[in-house]
Amino acid sequence: MRPFLFLGTRAEDDVAQQEYDAVLAGCGLRPDELVRMRLEATPLGEVDLDDWSGIILGGGPFNMSDPDDAKSPAQRRAEAELRSLAVRVVEADFPFLGACYGIGVLGTLRGGVVDRTFGEPIGALPVRLTDAGRDDPLFGTLPAEFAAYLGHKEAVSRLPDGAVLLAATVTCPVHAFRIGRNVYATQFHPELDAVAICDRIDAYSAHGYYEPHEREQLKAAAREAMVTEPVRLLARFVELHAREWPADRNSQLPSRVRSPRLEG
Hints:
Radius of gyration: 17 Å
Number of helices: 7
Distance between the termini: 15 Å
Oligomer: single chain
Number of strands: 11
Structural class: alpha/beta
CATH class: Alpha Beta
């Protein structure tokens, strides 16, 4: 099988590793089948879409709507690289699943608008599928309503032209959408469980997601929530898009997997 490519942007090693491990487990893949690259640390370089079954983009503290003068050089570079990749992915209708930060990356294409209108505090909320979401090959694996962990400053206030709305909450009208047949973004985090979201609450205490006095209350509420369904998206994404190498290709992994910039 051609591997999947996981793109991360978290600078905190423990949280970055936890995110990758959770996505790996949710996908049901081995490390050599989900190759990781950390864009906050190193340039993306050239991505040959033919080398991969699909691409998964994780979340992180980067926001497209951050003021330009507040963005670090690493954030500005990662944004430019991801936008270029996203344009290619959309043009090719290549399998792509972006969680949280994927909303920012895909949501600004084709006339879409991402801003601070529909931010939501860290926690678990009920997410409802639209009719299109219930009929969707990927999102149709979920129940019509399910609880999901989330927490975001920005969101889509205008969908990209031609995008299909798949899910929403009461407080955020765009929680998932699709462009073409195979390119997806979610505002919620499909990989998160209670332990992981509590660790992220601690890790990002200085990033403005909540007031310091709210930390323990947010963690307690997260532990009480029953969040079981969103992770099914990851295994379904793999099920839909895993593909084999051509019969005449000898190598089982892209040559760049052996680069120190890419990790299994």
